[in-house]
Amino acid sequence: MDQITEYILYAFATLFTMVNPLGVMPVYTTMTAKLPSDEARKTALKAVLIAGITLLLFAFTGKFIFDFFHISINGLRIVGGVIFFMAGYDMLQARLIRTKTDKETTHEFVDDISITPLAIPMIAGPGAMTVSIVLMSDAHTVLLKGVLVAVILVVLLITFLVLISSRKIIRKLGESGNKVLTRIMGLIVMVIAVEFVFSGLKPILRDILMIGN
Fold first, then answer.
1. Spatial separation of the C-alpha atoms in residues 159 and 41, rounded to whole Å
2. What residues does each domain of the chain span?
């Protein structure tokens, strides 16, 4: 498998599981239940566009912000891994991700739900933002950076399609089917989390051992 294909698969799997359209779907359906179909579609489109701008902004500027505050990418990998593991554990229990939503936010009236809570923090949550920054730091060529932008756009397109089809999907999957898919995605997120933590720890431990010698 060549480098580009491997990067595409890794970036897509990581970003898709962190955005988790299936996790956003029940909240979107609940909050747009009383809206006409065309208004619900507009809400989904606006939420996805805002989330896309946010993720691309973090992907391209996140490293500069972290450099300014002297935060290393390896440290971000470790913290991101912890966030992913917690998110994956919640998904494995078929619960909504704690870092993304809470009951109070979901059920109270929001002036513009497409911005909050749908775009931020449901679609572009802390995990997805962190993934965007880390994946961009792993993209060492202009081609790979372009690939990452394409992956982000594809994931957001899938998210939009899932949201506008959410009522049909929920009816067909049922509560049990939705929980099974959420658990599978949770397991994938936890595996990715472990990889993130170890990839962040390796360079730090190597530097410590070199200093010790």
1. 12
2. 3-212
Are 161 and 28 contacting, i.e. CB atoms less than 8 angstroms apart?
Answer: no
Higher pLDDT, 41 or 73: 41
Which residue, 204, 202, 177, 192, is CA-closest to 86?
A: 192
Q: Is 179 left (phi over 0), alpha (psi -120 to 50) or beta?
A: alpha
pLDDT in tens, 88-129: 788 787 665 444 545 444 334 334 788 887 898 789 988 899
pTM of the model: 0.74
Instruction: Quick: pLDDT tens for 175-196.
Output: 777 778 778 877 877 887 888 8
Query: 167-189: string of b/e by CB count within 10 Å (b at 16+)?
Result: bebbeeeeeeebbebbeebbebb
Query: Which spans in the chain are helix H?
Result: 3-19, 21-31, 37-68, 73-92, 103-107, 126-138, 142-164, 166-212
Q: Read off the tokens for 132.
A: 């965007």
